[in-house]
Specification:
alpha/beta, Helicase, Ruva Protein, domain 3, about 45% helix, Arc Repressor Mutant, subunit A, two-stranded antiparallel sheet
């Protein structure tokens, strides 16, 4: 999966677009905040294309000094400038037959943008200091964390190049918009890091996962990866609980709903009260999700779970919402909380403890599932 871990709707939409554009040579502009994984998306497009056996060359346009940008991209001839003691291929020649990924394209100087547009349209270029036109067969993918349309309106980016690169746009959402992927990403990063460094790591507790779900992750997936690796090392390979996670989180920033504005003119008491209101609305929505699962597919246990432990498996009947439920004890009708507990346990049991599958079965988020597992002290 090239490191593209998760099953959130946001990531699925990205991958659907990747699968559509990969077999073609159409130009793709990948946008999104820093650390969201734009390079991984570009690599996935290359690996799923007919060019996959040829080079995939990554160029960070924001890291190349303006004075040598053209030499780096298009190469130079011997004697083209002081220090050019030999001819040198540029990135376009190195990527011939494959894919050239231009990261931070918004930082490219205007003069270089003109030459880039020319090679995109005619697939020809001339090395710095040369006179011979050279042909290349390169697919160009570009990425930026800037608003290029705004840069065009300010005159910082060429309009014709913008439209040439922006044939298809793929927006990579920040981690706060795909938080359901956090548990899977944590597991993926922890497993890879502990295996590579030969660390016997017993994993994270549910409280630790919840603490990471409540963090804002302004650095997105890159920050999450670095955090997981750091906390494993600092906790010396021990099982990591919520206290350890909160201790290592920078400033212990708590995530707030990204769809609501965060006012900066209010007092700390007003902000705290508003945060509590938002949390209550979120919990109400999560309960509504669970209620829909109960109504949509009612599972009435013939023998309810004992209060302590789950040693005795219960049989159950699945009945439609319009049918009369099967009630063993007519004097006792199970409460919504009891049914919720039973539903969650059964989903986890059927999925073999796989929380992602169980959450999908219940039509709730993984975050809600983790909270309910902790609330009901379920043995998963």
């Amino acid at each position: 999966n090239l490191g593209l871990v998760g099953s959130s709707h946001a990531l699925e939409q990205v991958m659907k677009t990747v699968e559509l554009v990969a077999p073609t040579d159409i130009s793709v502009l990948i946008t999104g905040e820093s650390g969201t994984g734009k390079e991984l998306i570009a690599q996935a497009i290359h690996e799923m294309s007919k060019r996959s056996s040829n080079p995939f060359v990554v160029v960070n346009a924001g890291a190349i000094p303006e004075g040598i940008m053209e030499s780096e991209l298009f190469g130079h001839e011997k004697g083209a400038f002081t220090g050019a003691v030999a001819a040198r291929k540029g990135y376009f020649e190195l990527a011939d037959g494959g894919t050239l990924f231009l990261d931070e394209i918004g930082e490219m100087p205007l003069d270089t943008q003109v030459r880039l547009l020319r090679i995109l349209e005619g697939r020809e270029f001339i090395r710095v200091g040369g006179s011979v036109s050279r042909k290349v067969d390169v697919r160009v993918l570009a990425a930026t964390n800037r608003d290029l349309a705004d840069a065009v309106s300010r005159g910082d980016f060429r309009e014709d190049l913008y439209y040439r690169l922006n044939a298809v746009k793929i927006y990579v959402p920040p981690l706060r918009e795909r938080q359901d992927d956090i548990p899977a990403l944590v597991e993926y990063f922890a497993e890879r890091f502990s295996r590579k460094n030969k660390i016997n790591f017993p994993g994270f507790t549910q409280d630790a996962i919840l603490s990471m779900l409540d963090y804002a992750w302004p650095g997105n997936v890159r920050e999450l990866k670095n955090f997981v690796e750091t906390v494993i090392v600092m906790e010396k390979g021990q099982r990591i609980d919520g206290d350890a996670v909160r201790r290592h989180l920078p400033g212990n920033q708590i995530r707030m709903d990204s769809h609501l504005p965060v006012p900066v003119h209010k007092s700390s008491e007003e902000l705290e009260r508003e945060f509590l209101y938002r949390t209550l609305f979120e919990l109400k929505a999560e309960m509504a999700q669970l209620r829909e699962a109960v109504v949509g597919k009612y599972i009435m246990p013939q023998r309810r779970l004992p209060a302590a432990g789950f040693t005795e498996p219960a049989t159950y009947d699945v009945v439609s919402s319009v049918a009369e439920p099967v009630i063993e004890d007519e004097d006792h009708f199970p409460t919504l909380q009891e049914m919720e507990r039973e539903l969650i346990y059964r989903a986890l049991e059927r999925s073999g403890g796989n929380k992602r599958k169980a959450a999908a079965m219940l039509a709730i988020s993984e975050r809600t599932l983790y909270r309910k597992i902790k609330e009901y002290a379920l043995p998963f």
